[in-house]
Amino acid sequence: MAIVIRDAEVITMDVRTGSTPVTRSIRIEDGVVAELGATVRVQDGDTVVNGRDRLVCPGFVNAHTHSWEYLAKGRYDNLPLELWMLYSYPILGGKPLPPDLVRLRSLLFAVESVRSGVTTLVDDVLETPSQDFAQLDAVFDAYDAVGVRANISGHVINRPFIDTVPYAAEWLPSDVVDQVRATPLLSAADYLDFSQEAFRRYAGRADGRLRYMLAPSGPQRCTDDLLAGATELALAHDAECHVHVLETKTQAVTGREFYGTTLVEHLRRIGALSANTTLAHGIWTTDSDIATLAEYDVCVSHNPVSNLKLGSGIAPWRRYHDAGVTLGLGSDGCSSSDTPRLPEVLKAAALLHKVTEPDHTAWSTADEVLRAATLGGARSARLHTDIGSLEPGKKADLLVYDLNTLAFTPRNRLDLQLVYSENGSSLRQVMVGGEIVVDDGRVTTVDEEALLAELRDRLPGIQAEQDRVESRNTVFHEAFERMYRTCAAEDVGVHRWSGPPGAS
């Protein structure tokens, strides 16, 4: 049985019409767009949906997020990344989260995501102090239940955290330094073996809707053999290799201090760049870095809301576009942006880059933003042959908006209103692989109220543990504050942010 959506306004994001809405009908068979045109076949037994007064577009791809931060939503403010990480990614005292709580956390994250129009998640999952298969199984199980599409990582840091930033270790008490450096860490071989098993374990999960990806945390946080090995393994499995690079000015200083060059150039030298590589953030890149990323066909996931909240800086949007670097859009984690909802990210991306230069012809456009939220994210996730646009042969991952709402009143340019006016309140249906996972604002696959009730019951214990861990990690704050201010005042030859007093 097929589903036919008749006479809707459709944003296809294909090469012909892009983000310009056109009146089209869509025939969906076996989870795939079978036909799309002015007219399509209708057969006995088909479910026919009246598309008049509806806008249909590809589902959004959240090209960089961390579901594991969901339980820390709304806990922190006015902390730059390196200080915020002391509490959200604790160096000391973290206890393994039980798989049932990982599953609950992931279910709630997926529910909030799909309700806002996200049909694909690039979820960079990290567990403290380390990840095991029981925890990773719980994430896959949750996403399978909700029906979302996802790349799900084993995130790894295999250097002592105090040795991933410059200066700080020399300003900490020696007993604290010794304790951190004595913490067991995975070797490159351990991580690559884990990832090989993950590829085997999750192959074909949910008919290919769920995939494992590699996620070495960053070039300053992982050994060279792990970075190069992860790149090679990703190519072997045509999987995404997801790496945090040049998110902050501190990381620009780190590259110079650790390697005598930029972090992008270091990755190139060790063989850790490929068409399967996605850089999360990529704010403090030089012109030479951008040329290198274009040469290797590397994608960048842009996270404007998180970058603003953490004061990290503004990514060079126009320079990336001019160089031909593919951009996706990400929400980042729920502790650094406090939401997994991508409509807020689209609007932020469309607005932020209008204040970076006076030449209005170089400002970000709604078409570019929608392209990043769909095709760009699909390309970065290595899913571009399956999703990102509405075309015959691609998966039926799509959104249906009601045009009889205030957000679309009066009806002018629907693509602009989708970016600037709509916040998710007009979203009526969300489809993933032809299956309706949201209908009239309600998730159809799981019991949202039961999930919320379970979290309410468990929250006092969760928050008590968060308080304990945060208190233990205040020992690092003074040294990291000094390190942050020292780096902020240094000249790295790139200006992406004014910074605190004394910063260049």
From TrEMBL:
Q: For this protein, what is any one GO molecular function term?
A: hydrolase activity, acting on carbon-nitrogen (but not peptide) bonds
Looking up Pfam families in the UniProt record yields: Amidohydro_1 (PF01979)
Record InterPro entries: Amidohydro-rel, Metal-dep_hydrolase_composite, Metal_Hydrolase, MTA/SAH_deaminase
* Keyword Signal among record annotations: no
- Highest taxon listed in the record's lineage: Bacteria
| Residue span(s) of domain Amidohydrolase-related | 55-437
Is the keyword Hydrolase in the record? yes
Q: Which UniProt keywords apply?
A: Hydrolase
* Protein name (database record): Amidohydrolase
Protein species of origin: Prauserella cavernicola
